[in-house]
Amino acid sequence: GCSCEATRLRLSGGSAAQSTILQSIDALLGIRHESAFLAEMVDYMHPAHRQLLKDLATETRLPQLVAASAPESRLRAAHGRAVAALADFRKRHIGLVSRYIVAPAGRVRTEFASLAERGTGGQPLIQFLKEVRDEGALPPPLSDPGVDGSGD
Q1: Between these two residues, 4 and 73, which has the higher pLDDT value?
Q2: Could you tell me which of 29, 144, 31, 143 has the C-alpha nearest to residue 75?
Q3: Iron as a keyword (predicted)?
Q4: What is the domain partition of the chain in residue ranges?
Q5: N-to-C CA span, the chain
Q6: Using CA atoms, how far apart are residues 43 and 12, in angstroms rounded to an integer?
């Protein structure tokens, strides 16, 4: 037998929010999220990925450059298109989740149904996705030198 004492862990479960890519894009564009869940998911990332997000949050100057550019500048227009494209991606993602997770779960009442309601990371699935989408669709606070994209 094992002489070690069993320790119960409470983990969130798999979630796409554990991926570094979208949080990196948010940080580069100066998009901040209020969701504590996104910040918690950073703890599940590889240490090098956590460091990347921290570096992007503190070293990226794109938001300041955009804020300092003329309203009609190509840089500001490109930044606006990038923010809009990310919001569109998130909108389409919600559509896919609704079609392939939420709708089937509504037809089959099993453990899968609770997954559709809570998501793999334990968050209210559609509500969480819509919050992230909506925060990303808002113009980032470009004049804030503390833009960090980390959700803090």
Answers
A1: 73
A2: 29
A3: yes
A4: 16-66+73-137
A5: 44
A6: 11
